[in-house]
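Sync notes, pocket subgroup
Present: LS, DG
LS reminded everyone that the earlier model was apo-only. Rerun requested with calcium ion included. Inputs:
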Amino acid sequence: MYKNTIIGKGIFFLILCLFLLTTAFPILGISQPNHPYGNSSDPYHYFTYQEMTDLLHNLEDTYPDIMSLESIGVTYEGRDIWMVKLSDNVEETEDEPGVLFMGAHHGNEKPSFEILIFFIQHMVENYGKENTDNDEDGFVNEDPVDGFDNDGDGLVDEDPSEDRVRDAMNNTQIFLIPMVNPDGVEADSRKNCAPNYGPFGFSREITSYGVNLNRNYGDYWFLYYIFPTKYHLAMNMLDSSFNYRGEHPFSENETRSVRDFVETQDISISLSFHSYSEVMFYPWMHTSKPASHEDLFISIGDNMSKINKYFLYVGGQYIIPRYGGTLGTSENWLYRERDILSFTMELCKERTPSNPAVVYNVCLTHVGVNLYVCERSWTVESEKSLYGSTSFLNGL
Ligand SMILES: [Ca+2]
Ligand SMILES: [Ca+2]
Ligand SMILES: [Ca+2]
Ligand SMILES: [Ca+2]
Ligand SMILES: [Zn+2]
């Protein structure tokens, strides 16, 4: 009916234009870049837990030979803690070194899971591809992801190497837990969301909510009582504190899930991502006494630093007194109990960058860091044997 009027024709024409703009042009290839970062001036949209869950299921359906998805546990609020494995022959446990990447021990540190979701997509989408001249400058893989402008054209890392993706997938078992703390992600909270019943669980009433999961690992908790001031016992025991450690080691579903998973795998190196401040740490987190693999930690850390330009804290003495610092971190537990060379990675200059270009850059840069870690894992076990091994006395 409207079509018979001039206004009606105008509206029809307008709708036709909108249709062409939104539907037809992308088909013709006239569209925005195919990543969500683009040139948009809108604030960056970080994945929600549900969006990540849907994406991971889709990727697993699309790439079943090289990606598997498994729930390693369920949170207080009933969310699955997803673990992604990337490797050739992904359903088999092969004689290849394992690496572990974790994000969002602290739920309000969003870049920590964003870079891992990006990495998963980069790996599955580039695996099996011929070497490609991504930037169409006539050269192939002349500027791989290593933090440098290798060809001096003013662009950094614009032609990622498909070969590196293939080699990493074929020779490494890559494990990722992008959101260790999905309840915290959804609540935008540092801690998880389980109720507390006083510092040791003795209260009948709920006293507060949430445990700082990176204080809840089975570390030398007895040191709290020997050096209560230096290990900040008061704050770590106070259940309403942002650093509350929990009722007892591994009292939380999330930390138990990580522990039980890690105990079933041979893992050589792990990175646990947080935000922010562009720095990296390695054990010990609770003392400045050097770890027995100090030289190896520094070697790996220096090489990661070349890629992301982050500051590597060498030796705890620069940040913590000889006895002091942090107990109950995943890094200490992974290193002491499982001999895993574990790093804390503090991403970004702010906790939650909203500039899409900033988020894209930190994601791409850490594709390079993560690939380097995969490659280094191929030799790291033989390198480890040159140094002392961890023992009960290590770190005391
Ligand atoms: Ca390429
Ligand atoms: Ca090129
Ligand atoms: Ca370049
Ligand atoms: Ca480069
Ligand atoms: Zn954190």
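DG: The CA atoms of residues 68 and 140 lie 30 Å apart.
LS: The beta strands are 67-74, 80-86, 98-102, 173-177, 195-196, 208-209, 269-275, 279-281, 311-312, 341-347.
Action: DG to write up.
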